[in-house]
């Protein structure tokens, strides 16, 4: 059987089952945006890792080396933010074809460095090697009080569902690129995702925030992870989704790197108001958690509809 | 300028200089086998990451998926051992071509899992993606009392130099493979390196152990890292090197994943004896640290010789 038939999530399940034989102690592994390693005194490390491959995640002639360096770190900082943690270190592995120039490498490092500096995240190690295809792996570590960490499994029936920003812009950028338009604002969004680092830390500090994750595969795919982990369903009001262009791209498009969260209904309005005061932008309310199977009911002005949408996967 | 002209270590220096602007706090980054992140109560995390690329580090038709899975973790556990730390977690990223089968992936996981289980190291996360070339990145974390950690910079003039095992076997295996001999014991050594995990933990507990690192690029190349970091020179007695086959391969061959260490001369004999009692095998004494430039003087029965050897690099 080819691996593509098993699928990315099928293989992850296989890995999870096989490794269940090795005790993890107080640590928590696969299942959230980061692993969690508790420390003494109520603190914890979180750790995440992401691999970007030429031709799969990016086309080297479409993205500048600076953008690629920046994005390689951004997608990992987004995972740290999704836990409610503060990023503290990163590790960078790069397989570089022989033909790449020193100028390319300098541009890549400049982008990676700029985002590192913006959030004060030192690069503490890595690996460099030759390779036929440009491949980048970043591991990021973050720290937070254990009590501030947010998980996918914590959504409760009645929670209100929010996102931190406009969705579908990155997917629109990808469409624009594929249509040969390289200079649209959506292409910039696709190449320069903004990890919600300060927003994630602040949301981690709010006890009313129940479940949280980042939107990397698209709302339709990512929200189901929260629903499965929490054992509940959701209703999403399509007309409330802050769509960059079309609602379909906002729902199915990946790589927005906004945060998706559920809020205790009793405190939701107050937290949303405080968020707006803190960051000068809204938390967008898009739906509600309800009892039931881990599925999303899509509604348009209160009327259920049955679209044929799927999130992106890399297999 | 092509990156190959700058070289692997040249690029690492560029990275190090660029990131010097971001404070690392109490943490320690590039320069040892692992980064070090101190914790409360005198403990510390160590973190390392290694990338393996098809066609550069291995040929998929020469190594079984089980061996490749095992080796991917082994090279990282070796880095943790080289710091004197106990491995506690790993993270695995894999870019897999579409043509690979589920059977291949199961074999790979079985090898990775077997070594994980041997040392009780849970897999706490990772990433899976498609890719044209099989590429594997592992990040390993370890833990130790800060006082037990060993660095490259701690060698002192007069220290005696030791290695934990026979050298050059892996390089001989690579030669055998290139000559078409796939079943020699050296090929097995090349494909199944044994990370010196228990040895590294024990050596970390010995105050007489000064500098330590693992032998991944070959003695001639790796020892110079200790000399540069410690600001001293070394004399190596070629006839004392435990060579698998030729002395040249023992000195220049990579991927033995034995430990290289220096011992306070006053306690060296006693520690070596205790090591033999503990592990039933010798610590091999191969030379001495001396004042001078960070260079190795190779001697044959007390007579300096000037060979033309170089360690392997991946550029």
Structure, described:
The structure is a homodimer of 315-residue chains. Chain A is α+β, with helices and mostly antiparallel strands. Chain A has two domains: 145 residues, 2-Layer Sandwich (60s Ribosomal Protein L30, Chain: A), CATH 3.30.1330.10; 156 residues, PurM-like C-terminal domain (Phosphoribosyl-aminoimidazole Synthetase, Chain A, domain 2, Alpha-Beta Complex). Chain A has ten helices and twelve strands. In chain A, strands 7-9-6-10-8-11-12 form a seven-stranded mixed sheet. Chain A has a five-stranded mixed sheet with strand order 1-2-5-3-4. In chain A, strand 1 and strand 2 form a beta hairpin. In chain A, helix 3 runs parallel beside helix 4, helix 3 runs parallel beside helix 7 and helix 5 crosses helix 6. The first copy, chain A, is globular, with a radius of gyration of 19 Å. In chain A, 54% of the residues are buried. The C terminus of chain A is likely disordered. At the A-B interface, helix 1, helix 2, strand 2, strand 3 and helix 4 of A face helix 1, helix 2, strand 2, strand 3 and helix 4 of B.
**Can you say what the CATH homologous superfamily of the largest domain in chain A is?**
PurM-like C-terminal domain
Strand order of the largest sheet of chain A: 7-9-6-10-8-11-12
Low-confidence stretches of chain A: 311-315
As a whole number of angstroms, the C-alpha radius of gyration of chain A is 19 Å
Helix and strand element order of chain A: HHEEHEHEEEHHHEHEHEHEEE
**CATH architecture classification of the largest domain in chain A:** Alpha-Beta Complex
| Largest interface by Cβ-Cβ < 8 Å | A-B, 81 and 82 residues
Which structural category do the helix and sheet elements of chain A fall into? Answer: alpha+beta
The proportion of strand residues of chain A reads 25-35%
Separate helix tally of chain A: 10
Largest sheet of chain A: 7 strands, mixed
What is the averaged pLDDT score of chain A? 93
């Amino acid at each position: 059987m080819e691996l593509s038939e098993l699928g990315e999530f099928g293989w992850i399940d296989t890995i999870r089952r096989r490794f269940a034989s090795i005790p993890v102690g107080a640590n928590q592994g696969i299942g959230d945006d980061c692993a969690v390693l508790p420390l003494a005194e109520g603190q914890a490390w979180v750790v995440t890792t992401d691999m970007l491959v030429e031709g799969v995640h990016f086309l080297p002639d479409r993205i500048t080396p600076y953008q690629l360096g920046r994005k390689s770190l951004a997608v990992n900082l987004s995972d740290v933010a999704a836990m409610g943690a503060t990023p503290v270190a990163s590790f960078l592995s790069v397989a570089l074809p022989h033909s790449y120039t020193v100028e390319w490498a300098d541009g890549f490092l400049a982008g990676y460095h700029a985002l590192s500096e913006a959030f004060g995240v030192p690069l503490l190690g890595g690996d460099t090697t030759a390779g036929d295809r440009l491949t980048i792996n970043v591991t990021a570590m973050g720290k937070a009080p254990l009590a501030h960490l947010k998980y996918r499994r914590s959504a409760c029936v009645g929670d209100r569902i929010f996102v931190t920003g406009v969705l579908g812009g990155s997917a629109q950028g990808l469409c624009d690129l594929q249509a040969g338009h390289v200079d649209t604002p959506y292409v910039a969004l696709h190449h320069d995702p903004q990890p919600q680092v300060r927003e994630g830390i602040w949301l981690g500090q709010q006890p009313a925030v129940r479940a949280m994750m980042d939107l990397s595969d698209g709302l339709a795919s990512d929200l189901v992870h929260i629903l499965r982990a929490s054992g509940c369903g959701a209703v999403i009001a399509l007309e409330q989704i802050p769509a960059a262009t079309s609602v379909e791209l906002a729902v199915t498009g990946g790589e927005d790197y906004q945060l998706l969260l559920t809020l205790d209904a009793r405190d939701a309005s107050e937290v949303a108001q405080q968020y707006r005061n803190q960051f000068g932008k809204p938390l967008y309310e898009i739906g509600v958690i309800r009892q039931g199977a881990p599925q999303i009911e899509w509604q348009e002005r209160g009327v259920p509809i049955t679209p044929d949408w799927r999130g992106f996967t890399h297999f």
